[in-house]
Design goal:
Aspartate Aminotransferase, domain 2, 2 domains, eight-stranded mixed beta sheet, binds pyridoxal-5'-phosphate
């Protein structure tokens, strides 16, 4: 039986740093300090510095990070938030969970991120001024068109928040994503470019008032132990995950670099094929959380690769506005969501992670070329 090459392989990332990770896990276990201790503090400081923000607060996962970011920026029940339908459901569920209404804006078909012209039309149609925030998603590792989106949000008086769950280390005009809006949110789900060995998330910001509010919100509204200043919640990054993330963070740029090498190899190998390949617009640094190709023959290509022992993924197979759980709970932005629906029918994510060997990359290239009989 042929070895199945996984579309993502968090175990390979663990094995690549096994000794250091095992060592830090042992140290935390023996320390007796498991919640909000020195490892969380250290990781928050180093991650804020890495991203280029004044501060960072660790939370339990990337969905909570989005919820807290929205709430800290003043979004609440009855408000609306513009975002995209072509994203992880978490982006939209976080808006819904705080009682706000997601307004879904179509994507640009080349970058798969929010189309500024559609955001413009959506904001112009928002006569009652319900849209209080624009939640931009840097999907697949590529920054969205931040200049245009930020300008539109500012003109409408809406907060810009960045969902960076798939874009650790991605850049826009030389600065890391997460620093362009009022806050940036991250997930450390195990398959992310910076992944924990469990759940984890964080919010970065350079606004002290926002950081202070998130700090209160993420632990029962406490400034001082047992005394709630505001109504809060419990969502903490734990010491074990923070220690593991501190071992992995120094390797993030090298891992992103290796992803870019694999992506460049795919780009040259697939250049003359009937496949739409990812782009890296001028001024943006892609970190290839996913390597996404598109073709009308997507399902056949997927079967062909599976027969060759190569696992692929479809992120995401159904836009959120068509999912039963959200159909009735979202509003559709101006101009509809045709590109989001087309992407869901045509995209395919090929394996792209730092631990892929040259031989495995060759295998993937050969199998894709074989499908098109090149
Ligand atoms: C774009 C995006 N936003 C938010 C999330 C939520 O992160 P988590 O799974 O850590 O809650 C994810 C991860 O799945 C994501 O990809």
């Amino acid at each position: 039986m042929k070895t199945i090459l996984l579309p993502a392989d968090p175990k390979a990332a663990y094995l690549a740093q096994k000794d250091a990770i095992d060592g830090c896990v042992r140290e935390v276990m023996q320390s007796g300090w498991y919640i909000l201790g020195p490892h969380v503090k250290r990781f928050e400081e180093t991650f804020a510095t890495y991203v280029g923000a004044a501060g960072c607060i660790g939370v339990a996962n990337g969905t909570d990070a989005v919820q807290f970011a929205l709430r800290a920026c003043g979004v609440g029940p009855g408000d609306a938030v513009a975002t995209v339908s072509h994203t992880a459901v978490a982006t939209v569920s976080a808006i819904d969970w705080i009682g706000a209404r997601p307004v879904l804006v179509d994507i640009d078909p080349i970058t798969y991120t929010m189309d500024p012209s559609r955001l413009d039309a959506t904001l112009r149609a928002d006569m009652a001024h319900k849209i209080k925030a624009v939640l931009v998603v840097h999907l697949y590792g590529l920054a969205a068109d931040l200049d245009a989106l930020r300008e539109l949000a500012a003109r409408h008086g809406a907060a810009l928040i960045e969902d960076c769950a798939q874009a650790h280390g991605a850049t826009y005009r030389g600065a890391r994503v997460g620093t362009f809006g009022l806050c940036g949110t991250f997930s450390f789900y195990p398959t992310k470019n910076l992944g924990a060995l469990g759940d984890g998330g964080a919010i970065v910001s350079s606004d002290p008032a926002i950081l202070d509010r998130i700090k209160l919100l993420h632990q029962y509204g406490w400034r001082e132990r047992y005394i709630s200043k505001i109504a809060g919640y419990n969502s903490r990054l734990d010491e074990l995950q923070a220690a593991i993330l501190s071992v992995k963070l120094p390797q993030l740029d090298a891992g992103n670099g290796r992803r870019r090498v694999v992506a460049a190899r795919y780009a040259s190998a697939f250049a003359n094929m009937p496949l739409v390949l990812p782009v890296e617009p001028e001024g943006r640094g892609h970190v290839y959380h996913q390597y996404v190709v598109r073709t009308a023959q997507r399902d056949a290509l997927r079967h062909h690769l599976s027969d060759a022992g190569i696992g692929t993924a479809i992120l995401y197979p159904q836009p959120i506005h068509l999912q039963d759980g959200y159909r009735e709970r979202v509003a559709i932005g101006a101009g509809g969501l045709a590109e989001s629906e087309r992407a869901a029918r045509e995209i395919l994510c090929l394996p792209v992670y730092p631990e892929l060997s040259e031989a495995q990359v060759d295998e993937i290239v050969t199998a894709v070329r074989g499908f098109f009989a090149v």
